[in-house]
Amino acid sequence: MPHLDAAYRFARWLARSPDDADDLVQEAILRAFRGFDALRGSDVKAWLLTIIRNCHWTALKQEQRRGLVPLPEERDAQDGHALIATAPDPESASIHRDEQRTLESLISALPDDHREVLILREIEDMDYREIAAVTNVPLGTVMSRLARARAALKKQWLRHNDGVPRAVP
Amino acid sequence: MQCPESLRVQAYFDAEVDSVTAADIERHVEHCAECRALLHELEQLRAAMHQELTHLRAPPALSARLSRALDQESGPESSRRFRWPRWRLPLQPFWVGTFSGGFATAVAAILAFVIWAPRLANPLVDDLVGAHLRSLMSSHLIDVVSTDKHTVKPWFAGHTDVSPVVADFEAQGYRLIGGRADYLDHQRAAVVVYQHGPHVINVFSWADSQRALPANATHNGYHLIFWKSGDLEYCAVSDTAPDELLGLVRLLQGLSTGDARDSKN
């Protein structure tokens, strides 16, 4: 299924748990399949991620109305490193896990609207126009949010590494 | 105090600017220590995020669940505006070996299916001319702007599936102006961009597909010259005269045999 991984990754950053992400992806893909949200142009990935995002916010609003939204703290305890997939090789696995955990938690701590542009740009490799389409904001807003997200992340990242930026190959 | 150019520098880093603006920003960055530092940080952050966070895949269980859900949805009598392709990825094998290049291959295969399958009739020439024209029309001629092959060539490593011959032939009239990633023949092709007088020459390269290359052609006034070198296939496309295009091709062919020496100079 095309773009399923991208859809899942994006859902994982939006949803509060892996189970929620699964539900979100399923809902979005069924919506896409039923043709509720018409595909404009040919950018299937941006289209699918837009649906993921819409489904997420719709669900969140419904939960809020019902008073079901869990406290943010619940998120970290068991899911903190759930985003980690397989490490490249056993030796560097633990180092990677630490870095992943750090980077993940720093990104998770960003405001929602900043986090999503950063994820779409760096993880999903989308251009500004596509990001603007997915997040439904003007291009200029994408640029400023991206800049703020990166600046905030860099600041936290440096603090985490005792002021010494880790050499990244 | 933040440099007022920082947003433009970011746009340059994200390959969102045209080549003129890019040159402008490169000049600025040379003189602005703050923006140089910014570029460096942006690179570090990207590398860290790429390395640590791009490996997540949809779990096989989810994939199976979706297949079931979609099967239920698609009754034989259903008439849909959109039909999801009803085939399944072999998720299990590359889930197990997630880290191998297998994933890239799988993605390429998926994209290939989605994008290329509908037009099977000798598409390469059309696609090359199309890609050439798009590059000239959409301000997306160049992803990495540089006249330095040591900047252009490494850039391809992270952005395309191949590492083509890159060299500057300014002395011979073919100036290297940058590189670009493009999607061609089921893979992320590398495009080296040269300027020859007022003409832009796109040199596409992609992995050998084990089938015969199309003959050199002229299509809508654009000339295409194909050749193979090593395990790569190349095509130079331009509206410059065929002889002049051939001149660049000869220079590149001369180089590719000695590509190993490339790193020395």
Brief write-up:
Chain A is built from 8 helices and no strands. With 169 residues, chain A is an all-alpha fold. Residues 71-82 and 84-88 of chain A have low confidence and may be disordered.
What does it look like?
The complex is a heterodimer of chains A (169) and B (265). With 169 residues, chain A is mostly helical. Helix content of chain A is 70%, strand content 0%. Chain A has eight helices and no strands. Chain A has helices at residues 4-14, 18-34, 44-66, 74-79, 90-108, 112-123, 128-135, 139-160. Chain A starts with a helix and ends in a 9-residue tail after the last helix. Residues 71-82 and 84-88 of chain A have low confidence and may be disordered. Chain B is globular. In chain B, β3 and β4 form a beta hairpin. Chain B has nine helices and seven strands, in the order αααααααβαββββββα. The model of chain B is unreliable at 77-81, 86-101, 116-121 and 260-265 (pLDDT under 50). With 265 residues, chain B is of the alpha+beta class. Chain B folds into two domains: 6-53, no CATH class; 124-264, Protein Transport Mog1p, Chain A. Helix content of chain B is 44%, strand content 18%. The longest helix of chain B is centred in the N-terminal third of the chain and has 21 residues, at 33-53. The two termini of chain B are 41 Å apart. The chains are: A mainly alpha (169), B alpha+beta (265). The interface between A and B is large, with 52 and 47 residues.
